[in-house]
């Protein structure tokens, strides 16, 4: 996890892409309607791009070097100093919970 430039109001989740097929399928599922994302219990909604004034939003983002979806970017509003819990759920996969340390 790191602050995402150029939008300093976002947090980027990065994933181990050792299993590229599994990551591709997971992120494709996250992009579909019906995926629920929350940070510390606060519901987030999906956007296709960030706009100034957005809050509690997320999007799947491409690695510009490869052109492939590799990240999930989240706006910072619900993040607190230290430990945070990001929960991603869908009918298409088992619920994923990610602990994020944030400073």
Summarize the structure in words.
By secondary structure, the protein is mainly β. The protein is 12% helix and 49% strand. The protein is built from 1 helix and 8 strands. The longest helix has 12 residues, at 20-31. The radius of gyration is 13 Å and the shape is globular. 15% of the residues are buried.
Would you kindly provide a brief summary of this structure?
With 103 residues, the protein is mainly β.
The gross shape turns out to be globular
User: How much helix is in the residues?
Assistant: 10-25%
Radius of gyration from the CA trace? 13 Å
- Calculate the mean pLDDT score and round it: 89
Strand content: over 45%
**Residue runs with pLDDT of under 50 for 5 or more positions:** 1-6
Encode the helix/strand succession as letters: EEHEEEEEE
Strand order of the largest sheet: 1-2-6-5-4-3-7-8
The computed structural class is: mainly beta
Distance between the termini: 10 Å
Count of DSSP helices?
Answer: 1
**How many beta-strand elements?**
8
Main sheet overview: 8 strands, mixed
């Amino acid at each position: 996890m790191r602050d995402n430039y150029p939008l300093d109001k976002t947090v980027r989740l990065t994933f181990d892409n050792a299993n590229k097929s599994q990551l591709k399928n997971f992120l494709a599922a996250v992009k579909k309607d019906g995926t629920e994302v929350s940070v510390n219990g606060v519901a987030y909604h999906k956007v296709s791009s960030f706009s100034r004034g957005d809050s509690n939003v997320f999007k799947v983002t491409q690695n510009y070097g490869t052109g492939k979806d590799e990240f999930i970017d989240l706006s910072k509003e619900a993040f607190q100093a230290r430990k945070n819990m990001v929960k991603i759920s869908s009918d298409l996969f088992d619920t994923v919970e990610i602990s994020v340390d944030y400073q």
